[in-house]
Amino acid sequence: MDVKAVAKNTGLSASKVRPLVNMVRGKMVDEALTILKFTPTPKAKVIAKLVKSAASNAENNYQMTPSELKIVSIFADEAPMLKRFRPRSRGRVSPIKKRSSHITVIVAEQGGLIGT
Prior knowledge:
With 116 residues, this protein is α+β, with helices and mostly antiparallel strands. It has helices at residues 14-24, 29-37, 43-62; strands spanning 2-7, 69-78, 82-87, 93-98, 101-109.
């Protein structure tokens, strides 16, 4: 059974989150949390919180064992961006796009093969 957790409109650019997401894809949940704990970027904290949420959903709603959970799928999609404008010389403007993202984590119980 797959269990999902989603963080919407995170305020983090999807292109900056994707390298962190790629680091933990396919890992066991406790291993992924360890990797994110020692990653020196504030974005890792948001992803770690989301992975913990997915693990808690699996434990509380479906009575799965947290130590056997594996990240089956994790991805970051573009969210609607805020469009702002900055004044420039000679009465012109230049656009500013404040990007955001939706991050989704799907975890499932690893079968009898732990650590593979």
